[in-house]
Design goal:
The structure is a single chain. This protein has 187 residues and is mainly beta. The protein has one domain (21-166): glutathione-dependent formaldehyde- activating enzyme (gfa), CATH 3.90.1590.10. It is built from three helices and 13 strands, in the order ααβββαββββββββββ. The chain has helices at residues 4-9, 13-19, 51-57, and strands at 23-26, 32-36, 44-48, 62-68, 72-76, 79-81, 87-92, 95-99, 106-113, 116-122, 138-140, 154-156, 165-166. The strands form two sheets. A nine-stranded mixed beta sheet has the order 7-8-9-10-4-3-11-12-13. The chain has a four-stranded antiparallel beta sheet with strand order 1-2-5-6, with no helix packed on it. Strand 9 (106-113) and strand 10 form a beta hairpin. 26% of the residues are buried. Mean pLDDT is 87; it is low at 5-13 and 181-187.
């Protein structure tokens, strides 16, 4: 007869993720809670400088986690809910942004990227410390920025992976050259 420990070792990664408690985030007033079912199932973590994000969050840029919609649970006052319970605003063909109906905090946005249905979740909605995997990996719409950011992260002048890379001052990088590496290379 096999022990319970052996059975635990045989569980799949998906099953193990279901055994971990969700990672909760919430709006300013606490009415709307957004929970990540698996905190490791993040597609990316980005900093966006687009004019829409800047105007809607009231900041020079915003940091968001991108994850499959199936990885997010929405609760209103502790009861399961859907985006129908939030205030939604279609800001582009493929993006709908949602806010708490009580405090108007940004809670999430739905994104269509090709065939993927994703949620963008504000990093600020989750208490620190954040998992290392959640650290922003790049900037996009950097040509729309209101301030330069010198952080060593990759910067895209427009949409992520669909625009040219640029340096911290927004100048285009020559194709095939890494940020911070001169003509002579590293060293």
């Amino acid at each position: 007869m096999q022990s319970a420990g052996w059975a635990l070792l045989c569980l799949s990664t998906t099953t193990m993720a279901l055994l971990k408690p969700p990672t909760p985030g919430e709006c300013f007033c606490g009415k709307t809670r957004i929970s990540l079912i698996d905190a490791d199932a993040i597609v990316s973590s980005s900093i966006c400088h687009c004019s829409v994000c800047r105007r809607l969050c009231g900041a020079p840029f915003c940091a968001n986690l991108l994850t499959p919609r199936s990885n997010v649970r929405i609760d209103i006052y502790g009861s399961p809910a859907s985006t129908d319970a939030l205030a939604g605003l279609q800001t582009s063909k493929n993006v709908v942004r949602y806010r708490c109906t009580s405090c108007s905090s940004p809670t999430l946005a739905t994104l269509k990227l090709g065939k993927q249905d994703l949620y963008a979740l504000p990093l600020a909605a989750f208490p620190r410390p954040h998992p290392a995997k959640w650290a922003p990996q790049h900037h996009f719409h950097y040509s729309d920025r209101v301030m330069d950011v010198h952080d060593g992260l990759t910067k895209y002048s427009g949409r992520y992976l669909l625009s040219d890379e640029c340096d911290d001052a927004g100048e285009p990088l020559p194709k095939g050259r890494l940020p911070g590496v001169g003509e002579e290379g590293v060293g």
